């Protein structure tokens, strides 16, 4: 692999006295580190660990749907020796509740904001570190109380039993289900802790991006990745307090007997009627006011990263940089007024449903614009099919499916039928698993060299991609058909109902696909750990990319840059004439006319190898 | 190798389109063997569904085709450098306005269906005046309360009300309304065959109307997680002719108020007077 060591030319080096200063001992360097790169790596390994947990829970859910009431392989006899290793309906409820909780709160959100946000924000804007390094460290360490709380809720009778949406009355009154007792309180505490963690992160990201950009890095020169993370941080900061407040209200309902969410006169489990005066709809409004924007929190950073990766891998500037930013902002702001589309059947005022419907339809528009822009970025590019590109295309093709199935659900009357069926499950897995995780896999391969100084293995990476892509489509596409046939979600045994009896074979097919996909992740883990130590050394800029992080060493030392970078232009200047290279780093000043205007006249010599001659200034 | 990847990415949209086209033939479409909705409103909802399906199918095929073609061209690109282009205003205007118009059309087009379904002002009057039953969801069963024959459903239970569990009879051919409530947690009244779904909220009484248009026995399930037994809230809605429906109510009255001596204990006068009228 030819490696370019570009030098920030044409500028006065601003020497940074603090660069390369040695951080203390092992503990302060690797454990209670305040270095954003180490914190990113801590987030990475924690979330990958959680991905295993969440994946195992998913496979257990799928096992039950494919082989209902049959002994769970491997762990069954050990977990439930009394029931002959069979999953009980209570346990099934706990399984999907915790699967969703773990995937959303402990995998997707922290891997995006925690890992990539931490790693990339200072590097891509040319800063030494985050604005508040200690807060940054805390935001990682607040994940652990959350993990412990979620873990505790496993150990109490039944486990949390109300789904990750935690709808009252089920989640609010302990007598409603075996798992609605202490387990649910711990679950709520876990959500609160992870909320603290995200909040500290988002304050930090906003401050850093606003205040610490390198000279010349105007807002419209920020890479799309940073835009995605920036808008996400804003969303997070405005939406999260509402969830935290709601969660707190639920905790006081449970522990102190305030009655925010339950009305009077309920007879639960033949117990005495409750006192009350509350309203379960209130929770739904509070919950979705956060959780709808949350799906964009889980998507916008990926959209940003994919924009940068695609542009680099196709050697073309991003098509429509500003429209991409505006559509992201439009998604984010519309995202705040569409929470009601989760509540069309909830009994809220139906006239309001219409307003939510129109707003939701409109949110499809910027998403469509983004899709077209990505496609146009590929169009006329020089596509290199490496693992990064493959995962980006995986992102794109799954996002198209997930986006289109969203239109069905935006349409209120159609959603009445599809709500809470597997059609929904299909939709959000296409977006959350399909789009987000493929984007994350791509980003992991892309920035791995910056994290560890070594490249990941291409063969393993491609095999992992192919198996995951086949498995994902095999698992999630048939869910649309299950939804069409009216199979409700969260059913431990759908086959009990006459009209669903015939769905067993389809569910079995999906479970087998899910197992293939699960096993494929082993390749990812092998690849990560092998490449960390034995991968080929990467050099500063293995992808010939343009943004600032590639001017730093791989991995960058404490303090990141040898000299404070100065930025001269936008982030994706590919396909330009720049000596013998086709790209222009953001720190490079000269900008010759693009090749398309000076055809053929250029020399035919292959310059690939002379790249090595270039030396970095450090 | 690059071409191989293009084929790989081409395979999936083709598989998706083929399986969707196959779906109605192999029974993967709407329940009860792809039958049409058993309610008139449901048929309109299906219509809207198919309209969206056509729109999205065109967009899906179009975008995937362009994507794969762009990749195909991209790997075979023999130019030394890719095209240097930052965007194209005209193009971007076109591809914002066209989907915008389509989406706005879809949004406005469905307003009527939604209004007819859920906005109380548009409920059929006959149904509103005389709700046929109160449906109470509880862990983990459906309870039905009909008013006595010839009487109206009262908000509070009456001594002569009729009760059943997990079996609701309704006549077809006229709009009927139920009052939906829950005793304990949230549930959701889901009638797949009729494309009806409405959450039952504790503390609220929600009127739901529907008009079944053909006879049959349909599954009534719960669509909102309501505890460990959520999956087994199994009930049936029996849609029958007006006559059968009235007979059913009579039988129910007889069963329920049979005092063991061959007499109808409660509500005697009412049913007798009705009998003489005939
Ligand atoms: C190995 C991959 C995965 C498989 C096989 C899988 C499978 C499943 C299954 C079977 C359900 C239960 C549906 C139900 O009965 O309601 C479910 C629910 C869910 N999954 Fe996944 N999933 C996977 C990955 C993910 C990922 C990466 C996310 C990321 C955010 C995710 C988020 C969710 C959510 C939010 C739910 C809803 C749970 C609920 O009903 O409350 N899943 N998944
Ligand atoms: Cu229920
Ligand atoms: Cu239920």
Automatic annotation (TrEMBL), chain A:
Query: What is the topology of this protein in the membrane according to its UniProt annotation?
Result: Multi-pass membrane protein
Record's Gene3D superfamilies? Cytochrome c oxidase-like, subunit I domain
Q: For this protein, what is any one GO molecular function term? A: heme binding
For this protein, the record's InterPro entries field holds: Cyt_c_oxase-like_su1_dom, Cyt_c_oxase-like_su1_sf, Cyt_C_Oxase_1, Cyt_c_Oxase_su1_BS
E.C. code: 1.9.3.1
- A GO BP term, please? respiratory electron transport chain
Family membership noted in the UniProt record: Belongs to the heme-copper respiratory oxidase family.
Q: Which gene encodes it?
A: coxN
Biased segments, Acidic residues type:
608-618
UniProt name for this protein:
Alternative cytochrome c oxidase subunit 1
Domain of life where this protein originates: Bacteria
User: Which keywords are on file for this protein?
Assistant: Electron transport, Heme, Iron, Membrane, Metal-binding, Oxidoreductase, Respiratory chain, Transmembrane, Transmembrane helix, Transport
Q: Give one Pfam family, short name only.
A: COX1
Where does the record place it? Membrane
Bilayer-crossing residues are 38-63, 102-125, 137-157, 186-205, 226-248, 287-306, 318-339, 351-369, 390-412, 424-448, 460-481, 509-530
Species name: Gimesia panareensis
TrEMBL record, chain B:
Cofactor names from the entry are: Cu cation
- What keywords would UniProt list here? Copper, Electron transport, Membrane, Metal-binding, Oxidoreductase, Respiratory chain, Translocase, Transmembrane, Transmembrane helix, Transport
Q: Where in the cell is it found?
A: Cell membrane; Membrane
The UniProt transmembrane annotation reads 48-72, 93-111
Any keyword Nucleotidyltransferase? Answer: no
Lineage per the UniProt record: Bacteria, Pseudomonadati, Planctomycetota, Planctomycetia, Planctomycetales
Q: Which domain of life is it from?
A: Bacteria
Q: Name one GO cellular component term.
A: plasma membrane
Q: Please tell me the species this chain comes from.
A: Gimesia panareensis
For this UniProt entry, the molecular function terms from Gene Ontology, in alphabetical order, are: copper ion binding; cytochrome-c oxidase activity; oxidoreductase activity
Q: What is this protein called?
A: Cytochrome c oxidase subunit 2
Q: What exactly does this protein do?
A: Subunits I and II form the functional core of the enzyme complex. Electrons originating in cytochrome c are transferred via heme a and Cu(A) to the binuclear center formed by heme a3 and Cu(B).
């Amino acid at each position: 692999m030819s490696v370019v060591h570009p030098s920030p030319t044409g500028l006065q080096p601003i020497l940074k006295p603090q660069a390369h200063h040695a951080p203390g001992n092992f503990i302060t360097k690797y454990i209670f580190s305040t270095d954003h790169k180490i914190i990113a790596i801590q987030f990475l390994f924690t979330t990958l660990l959680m991905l295993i947990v969440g994946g195992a829970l998913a496979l257990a859910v799928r096992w039950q749907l494919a082989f209902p009431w049959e002994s769970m392989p491997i762990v069954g006899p050990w977990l439930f020796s009394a029931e002959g290793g069979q999953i009980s309906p209570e346990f099934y409820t706990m399984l999907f509740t915790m699967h969703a909780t773990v995937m959303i709160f402990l995998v997707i959100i922290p891997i995006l904001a925690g890992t990539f946000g931490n790693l990339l924000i200072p590097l891509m804007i040319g800063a030494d570190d985050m604005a508040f390094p200690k807060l940054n460290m805390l935001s990682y360490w607040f994940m652990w109380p959350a993990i412990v709380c979620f873990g505790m809720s496993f150990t109490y009778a039944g486990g949390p039993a109300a789904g990750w949406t935690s709808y009252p009355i089920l989640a609010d009154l302990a007598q409603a289900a075996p798992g609605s007792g202490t387990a649910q309180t711990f679950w709520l505490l876990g959500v609160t802790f992870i909320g603290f963690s995200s909040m500290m992160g988002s304050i930090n990201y906003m401050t850093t991006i606003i205040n610490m950009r390198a000279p010349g890095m105007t807002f419209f020169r920020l890479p799309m990745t940073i835009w995605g993370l920036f808008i996400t941080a804003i969303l997070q900061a405005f939406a999260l307090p509402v969830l935290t407040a709601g969660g707190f209200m639920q905790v006081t309902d449970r522990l102190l007997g305030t009655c925010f969410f339950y009305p009077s006169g309920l007879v639960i489990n033949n117990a005495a009627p409750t006192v009350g005066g509350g309203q379960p709809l209130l929770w739904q409004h509070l919950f979705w006011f956060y959780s709808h924007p949350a799906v964009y929190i889980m998507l916008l950073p990926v959209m940003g990263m994919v924009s940068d990766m695609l542009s680099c891998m196709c050697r073309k500037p991003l098509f429509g940089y500003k429209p991409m930013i505006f559509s992201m902002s439009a998604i984010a702001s519309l995202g705040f007024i569409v929470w009601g589309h989760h509540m069309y059947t909830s009994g809220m005022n139906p006239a309001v449903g219409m307003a939510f419907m129109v707003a939701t339809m409109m949110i499809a528009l910027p998403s469509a614009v983004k899709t077209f822009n990505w496609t146009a970025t590929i169009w006329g590019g020089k596509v290199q099919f490496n693992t990064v590109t493959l995962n980006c295309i995986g992102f794109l093709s799954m996002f198209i499916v997930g986006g289109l199935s969203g239109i069905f659900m935006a349409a209120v009357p159609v959603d009445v039928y599809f709500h809470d069926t597997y059609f929904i499950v299909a939709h959000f897995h296409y977006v959350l698993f399909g789009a987000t995780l493929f984007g994350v896999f791509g980003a992991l391969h892309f920035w791995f060299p910056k994290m560890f100084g070594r490249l990941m293995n291409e063969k393993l990476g491609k095999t992992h991609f192919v198996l995951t892509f086949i498995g994902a489509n095999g698992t999630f596409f048939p869910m649309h058909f299950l939804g069409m046939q009216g199979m409700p979600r969260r059913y431990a045994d759908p086959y009990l109902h006459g009209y669903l009896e015939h769905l067993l074979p389809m569910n079995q097919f999906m479970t087998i696909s899910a197992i293939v996909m699960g096993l494929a992740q082993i390749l990812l883990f092998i690849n990560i750990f092998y490449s960390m130590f034995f991968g080929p050394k990467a050099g500063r800029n293995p992808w010939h990319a343009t943004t600032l992080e590639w001017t730093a060493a791989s991995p960058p030392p404490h303090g990141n840059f040898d000299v404070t970078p100065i930025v001269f232009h936008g982030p994706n200047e590919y396909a330009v004439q720049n000596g013998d290279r086709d790209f222009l780093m953001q720190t490079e000043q000269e900008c010759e006319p693009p090749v398309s205007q000076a055809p053929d006249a250029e020399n035919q010599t292959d310059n690939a190898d002379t790249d090595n001659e270039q030396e970095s200034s450090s | 190798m690059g071409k191989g990847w293009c084929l790989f990415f081409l395979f999936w949209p083709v598989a998706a389109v083929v399986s969707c086209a196959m779906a109605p033939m192999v029974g993967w479409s709407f329940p009860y063997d792809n039958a049409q909705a058993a309610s008139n409103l449901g048929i309109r909802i299906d219509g809207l569904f198919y309209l969206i399906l056509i729109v999205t199918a065109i967009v899906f095929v179009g975008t995937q085709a362009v994507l794969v073609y762009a990749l195909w061209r991209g790997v075979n690109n023999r130019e030394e450098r890719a095209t240097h282009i930052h965007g194209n205003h005209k193009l971007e205007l076109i591809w914002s306005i066209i989907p915008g118009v389509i989406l706005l059309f879809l949004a406005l087009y469905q307003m009527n269906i939604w209004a007819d379904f859920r906005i109380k002002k548009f409920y059929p009057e006959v149904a509103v005046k005389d709700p046929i039953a109160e449906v109470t969801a509880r862990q983990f069963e459906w309870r039905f309360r009909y008013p006595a024959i010839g009487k109206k459903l009262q908000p509070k239970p009456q001594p002569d009300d009729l009760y059943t569990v997990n079996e609701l009879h309704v006549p077809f051919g006229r709009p009927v309304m139920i009052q939906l409530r829950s005793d304990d947690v949230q549930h959701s009244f889901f009638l797949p065959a009729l494309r009806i779904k409405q959450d039952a909220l504790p503390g609220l009484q929600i009127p739901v109307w529907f008009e079944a248009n053909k006879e049959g026995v349909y599954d009534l399930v719960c669509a909102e997680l309501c505890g460990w037994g959520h999956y087994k809230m199994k009930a049936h809605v029996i849609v029958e002719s007006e006559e059968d429906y009235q007979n059913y109510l009579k039988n129910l009255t007889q069963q329920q108020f049979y005092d063991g001596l061959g007499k109808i204990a409660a509500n005697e006068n009412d049913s007798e007077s009705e009998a003489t009228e005939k």
